[in-house]
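Quick one, tokens below. Sequence please?
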């Protein structure tokens, strides 16, 4: 077995990987950066656990943070540095654990004076050290970015305002609107570069990429993802859109090419997601891969994967630094996965696509005010790793009744494949709002040049409904229908757990807490402070007590949209299963040298269906794979079977699996302490009604 440190040295010399943020005292190997390294490859050179012995894996330790609650999730990819594991919990506490024993070293609760009132997510933390005594852990909770002492968990008082930065500042919007982070920032020299998570309906702020001094918290640079006058891309928006439009945020985290001094940001769509009459044009830099000078924030190159997005086609994960054989030579490239099921491959320095991208024509919208882009670009290779168009032949045959129900519904709505606009009768979005690829991101093999990506294969329905302008809303119910029903539904039942039910809210929250939430926003919910006090009170009165009070009409607003979606709806049968034939989730190996798919297999299943003989269906899955030099792909991700699996990277053969306390909807990590390799994953569950948990579980070979 090759020494892992020697293997990394050889790879570095060959140019197949970039320098990774690893520290290697004797017997240790770190996983000190989100997704395993600044390159986002999810790759580890560790090989103590390999194809021959992976079947012997057993639980080495379990740590239960004991703070799960209904619908809570743990999506954290932990970082491990010098034998200490740093991670977040269901309630966004930060914990430090002895990575060999699973014992708690310290715990920081940012919510002790400001209890969390809605579900939040965290996919990890950022570790930084000056190489001597100053070691810090950065993470976000609510609207704050914290700097903690890595040894004690105490806030570093000299950073920002007493140890934290308010992420709502420096965005040029008043009143301040909700901003947080779900994915960790990245370190470049003395800079901490961060993105943001925002509401997906207006009003919401712009998703500027920002860099802070890692020691003081001073803002060093900002990149305007919605360009200001005179900036590149300004002419792709209405002239005043930079003052009122929002979104276009990097919520996925970043990828860094340290040698070239480039940081790569993948952005989401502009708000609102499904109707863009107030943002006519291509809307740069929405849905774009952007290469920025990491020292200054200046744009080097970009590619927009969707023009004028009205399908929520956010770029869902950081791009991956890869080196591939192309046209007879090694090329340093960048691979970007998408919700639509395609992989875009670009030259890392220039942004030139390695495989041709074909501009295809798509139908215009028949919704008043909407102006769609006449063309969209899709790469000719690799082929899509998810099905592209739902047809009658693909409808469920789980039972005759389920098939007939699906057929009757399907014939009443539109299904034309990618980039067919939303409609009054309903339009199938397939793959759905959650991909295709999702935030877990892919893994890349520097030997075979394969990209490994798990995918969802679910159909959703986008229906647009007309609404009266806010200026004509004269009651609390009318204001609710205008501002809230797109997410929480006309009947307030929502689409839990993503969009919670408001039924019986008075038994769970105080009226003052509800008013604060409506006013300030939180998570994916925008701030509605712009409504004014009278309108806010009327909305709260209707939601909280069911009393419909009269109010004066509001003032004209650029947020006022004539159409909105009727909510987030999957295409399901009457028993809650997908109304299409399996697979409902897959795992794919894509050869980036040849542009072909080497293998694909269903990932996950529904235990109750498997018990009836319907196995290997695949299921929705969240969280990515980890690849090791031992030839193994480790992945949890699947929502319902709670399995953690290891596959052979070359064949896709299942070599080992175990059942977790809750679904492992997170990317695992692998590391070595005192000569022993571990693989750890967060078992938080909570996706789409699955039971929630609060454990980290680490596996190793028997001693």
């Amino acid at each position: 077995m090759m020494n892992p440190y020697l293997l990394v040295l050889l790879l570095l010399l060959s140019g197949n990987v970039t320098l990774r943020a690893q520290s290697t005292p004797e017997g240790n190997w770190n996983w000190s950066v989100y997704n395993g390294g600044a390159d986002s490859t999810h790759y580890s050179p560790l090989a103590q656990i390999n194809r021959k012995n992976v079947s012997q894996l057993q639980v080495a330790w379990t740590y239960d943070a004991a703070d799960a609650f209904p619908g809570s999730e743990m999506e954290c990819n932990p970082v491990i540095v010098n034998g200490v594991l740093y991670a977040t919990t269901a309630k966004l506490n930060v914990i430090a654990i002895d990575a060999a024993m699973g014992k708690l070293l310290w715990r920081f609760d940012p919510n002790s004076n400001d209890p969390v009132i809605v579900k939040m997510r965290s996919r990890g933390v950022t570790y930084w050290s000056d190489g001597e005594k100053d070691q810090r852990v950065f993470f976000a909770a609510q609207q704050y970015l914290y700097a903690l002492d890595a040894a004690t968990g105490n806030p570093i008082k000299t950073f920002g305002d007493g140890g934290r930065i308010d992420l709502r500042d420096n965005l040029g919007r008043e009143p301040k609107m909700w901003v947080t982070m779900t994915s960790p920032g990245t370190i470049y020299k003395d800079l901490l570069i961060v993105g943001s998570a925002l509401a997906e309906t207006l009003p919401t702020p712009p998703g500027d990429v920002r860099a802070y001094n890692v020691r003081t918290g001073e803002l060093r640079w900002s990149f305007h993802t919605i360009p200001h006058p005179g900036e590149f891309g300004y002419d792709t928006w209405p002239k005043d859109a930079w003052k009122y439009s929002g979104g276009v945020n990097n919520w996925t985290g970043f990828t860094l090419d340290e040698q070239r001094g480039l940081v790569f940001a993948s952005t989401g769509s502009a708000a609102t997601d499904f109707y863009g009459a107030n943002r006519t044009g291509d809307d740069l830099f929405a849905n774009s891969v952007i290469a920025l000078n990491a020292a200054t924030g200046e744009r080097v190159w970009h590619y927009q994967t969707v023009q004028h997005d009205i399908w929520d086609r956010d770029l869902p994960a950081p791009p991956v630094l890869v080196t591939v054989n192309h046209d007879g030579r090694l090329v340093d490239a960048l691979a970007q996965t998408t919700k639509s099921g395609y992989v875009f491959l670009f030259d890392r320095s220039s942004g030139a696509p390695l495989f041709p991208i074909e501009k295809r024509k798509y139908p215009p919208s028949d919704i008043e005010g909407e102006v769609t882009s006449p063309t969209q670009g899709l790469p000719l290779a690799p082929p899509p790793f998810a099905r592209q168009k739902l047809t009658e032949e693909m409808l469920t045959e789980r039972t005759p009744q389920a098939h007939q129900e699906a057929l009757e519904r399907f014939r009443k709505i539109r299904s034309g494949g990618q980039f067919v606009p939303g409609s009054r009768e309903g339009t199938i979005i397939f793959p759905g709002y959650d991909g295709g690829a999702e935030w877990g991101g892919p893994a890349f093999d520097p030997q075979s040049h394969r990209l490994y990506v798990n995918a969802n294969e679910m159909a959703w329905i986008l229906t647009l409904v007309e609404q009266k302008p806010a200026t004509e809303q004269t009651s609390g119910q009318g204001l609710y229908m205008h501002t809230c029903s797109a997410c929480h539904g006309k009947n307030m039942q929502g689409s839990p757990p993503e969009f919670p039910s408001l039924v019986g809210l008075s038994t769970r929250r105080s009226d003052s807490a509800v008013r604060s939430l409506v006013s300030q926003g939180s998570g994916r919910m925008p701030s509605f402070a712009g409504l004014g006090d009278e309108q806010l009170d009327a909305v709260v009165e209707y939601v909280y007590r069911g009393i419909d009070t009269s109010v004066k009409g509001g003032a004209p607003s650029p947020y006022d949209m004539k159409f909105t979606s009727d909510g987030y709806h999957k295409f399901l049968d009457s028993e809650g299963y997908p109304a299409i034939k399996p697979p409902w989730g897959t795992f794919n190996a894509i050869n980036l040298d040849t542009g072909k798919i080497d293998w694909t297999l269903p990932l996950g299943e529904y235990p109750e269906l498997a018990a009836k003989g319907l196995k290997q269906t695949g299921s929705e899955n969240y969280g990515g794979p980890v690849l090791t030099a031992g030839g193994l792909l480790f992945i949890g991700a699947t929502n319902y079977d709670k399995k953690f699996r290891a596959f052979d990277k070359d064949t896709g053969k299942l070599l080992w699996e175990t059942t977790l306390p809750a679904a492992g909807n997170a990317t695992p990590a692998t590391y070595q302490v005192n000569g022993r390799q571990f693989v750890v994953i967060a078992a938080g569950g909570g996706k789409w009604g699955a039971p929630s948990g609060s454990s980290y579980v680490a596996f190793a070979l028997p001693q």
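Helices lie at 4-14, 241-244, 400-410, 476-483, 485-488, 511-520, 533-545, 607-611. The longest strand covers residues 676-685.
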